[in-house]
Amino acid sequence: MKTNLKNPKxxxxxxxxxxxxxxKFLSLSGLSGIFAGLFALIGAAVAWFYxxxxxxxxxxxxxxxxxxxxSSGVGFYLALDAILVLxxxxxxxxxxxxxxxxxxxxxxxxxxxxxxLAYFMIPLVTGGIFVxxxxxxxxxxxxxxxxxxxxxxSLVNAGKFTFGEIHYLGLTEIILxxxxxxFINQGLLLWTVGxxxxxxxxxxxxxxxxxxxxxx
Length: 216
Prior knowledge:
It is a single chain. By secondary structure, the chain is mainly alpha-helical. It contains 8 helices and no strands. It has one domain. Helix 2 (30-51) runs antiparallel to helix 8 and helix 5 (111-136) runs antiparallel to helix 6. 36% of the residues are buried.
């Protein structure tokens, strides 16, 4: 790298960018957040209008008394709905991140990627196991809060290896999870805000801040 004697600030900025690229996963695309948010909204709509019959089956106390959530039709299809949303969201994240890395001439799988995934997956897997325990004990009303809180912890944990917006998205998810724990019957609504609306908002911010500006 050639030094710029006339403007040393540019040299310092260039060095910072090189160090940031080597230590952070910058291939994460804001479009993946928007994509995940849209699928979460679709999943929430399916859960509300078809699985929960527009709210007629949303009384968690009734569900808990009638059958184990996973063995009942409602519980099984809610779990299936959540798994499909997660699956499509992960596929979208890989696709858009791979596309961004290819355009920038960078590799997707780097040491930064490994660190990000390790820090992200530990709280996420822990939360997933805890959700299964809650379902086993018929505590379906706590599923949405736990999903939001542990997902938020995953984002905060991984935020140090990527864009700063991920850290703040994680804090937002944690706050929404706590609210969902207080207002149990509003769990699906707050889940929709967290996984749907917030993903779209933060994904849009990331896209216009880190990708759209560079194109122009």
